[in-house]
């Protein structure tokens, strides 16, 4: 840690940009605000011996930082470099404009962002290691993204910033329609599907499952099944192939087949309807009772 506070004597300015959030977004605490602006004071961790020249340097940089509004937490990039082992080391101020000391008791996910908000690196840090961050203070700190957390080959020396990765508030589970369905379905049918998705219990977080909504036998003897593909994940899911088994009211498997999908994606926290057609050659019995039915992938699929 002592090496961190050493500086390049040829540099007198910081290279990174700032990322500032309300303390409620990060700590979940409601704090009354007067709207005043805060000049944060330089702070070093207890027990760290910092040379006079380095202290002057960080004090100069701190004096150049913009004022914060009350009850904000900010990351202000100083410099970034890539080590011989391809890890990326970021020097930055972590700043607290609250009128009280704060403690990061939970791990904090951080992003290293480049031009156009490109994610250069992502890692979760234990910020409790430096103890309390005093009221209205700026702490210079070292953030190391090991190679496995770095997503690009080249790290820009300008137009970058260290940022908090905030959890987006999850909205209600919603309907996701493929463009072809959006164009072909009547508005009343879209409304019925949206209402159906709204009423159903959403899938568990991270779960992807199937729910049958319509099944019929066509004149040519094929079985048409329309399913809702339900994505409970907070990320979009791409599906290239879906193996399916269909059971009728008897509980017997009446059809089984695999379907190749072209660029098929179900958006995060949505359900997408899709129709799967089993030709007559894939049906396993002549008389099929569709008064009750279900669809599911084979075990291990």
UniProtKB/TrEMBL annotation:
Protein name per Swiss-Prot or TrEMBL: Accessory Sec system S-layer assembly protein
Organism annotation: Bacillus benzoevorans
């Amino acid at each position: 840690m002592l090496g961190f506070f050493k500086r390049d004597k040829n540099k007198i300015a910081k290279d990174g940009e700032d990322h500032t959030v309300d303390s409620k977004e990060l700590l979940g605490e409601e704090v009354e605000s007067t709207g005043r602006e805060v000049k944060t004071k330089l702070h070093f961790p207890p027990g760290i011996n910092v040379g006079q020249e380095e202290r002057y340097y960080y004090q100069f940089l701190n004096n150049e930082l913009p004022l914060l509004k009350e009850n904000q937490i900010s990351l202000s990039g100083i410099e970034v470099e890539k080590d011989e082992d391809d890890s990326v080391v970021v020097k930055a101020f972590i700043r607290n404009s609250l009128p009280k000391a704060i403690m990061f008791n939970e791990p904090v996910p951080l992003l290293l962002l480049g031009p156009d908000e490109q994610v250069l690196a992502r890692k979760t840090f234990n910020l409790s290691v430096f103890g309390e961050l005093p009221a209205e203070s700026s702490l210079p700190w070292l953030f190391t993204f090991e190679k496995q957390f770095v997503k690009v080959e080249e790290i820009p020396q300008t137009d970058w910033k260290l940022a908090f990765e905030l959890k987006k508030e999850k909205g209600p589970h919603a309907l996701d329609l493929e463009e072809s369905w959006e164009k072909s379905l009547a508005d009343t049918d879209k409304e019925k599907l949206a209402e159906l998705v709204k009423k159903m219990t959403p899938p568990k977080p991270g779960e992807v499952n199937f729910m049958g909504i319509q099944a019929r036998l066509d004149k040519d003897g094929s079985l048409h099944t329309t399913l809702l593909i339900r994505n409970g994940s907070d990320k979009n899911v791409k599906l290239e192939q879906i193996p399916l088994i269909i059971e009728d009211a008897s509980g017997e498997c009446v059809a089984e087949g695999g379907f190749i999908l072209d660029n098929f994606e179900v958006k995060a926290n949505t359900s997408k309807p899709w129709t799967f057609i089993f030709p007559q050659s894939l049906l396993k019995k002549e008389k099929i009772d569709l008064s009750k039915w279900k669809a599911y992938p084979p075990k291990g699929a």
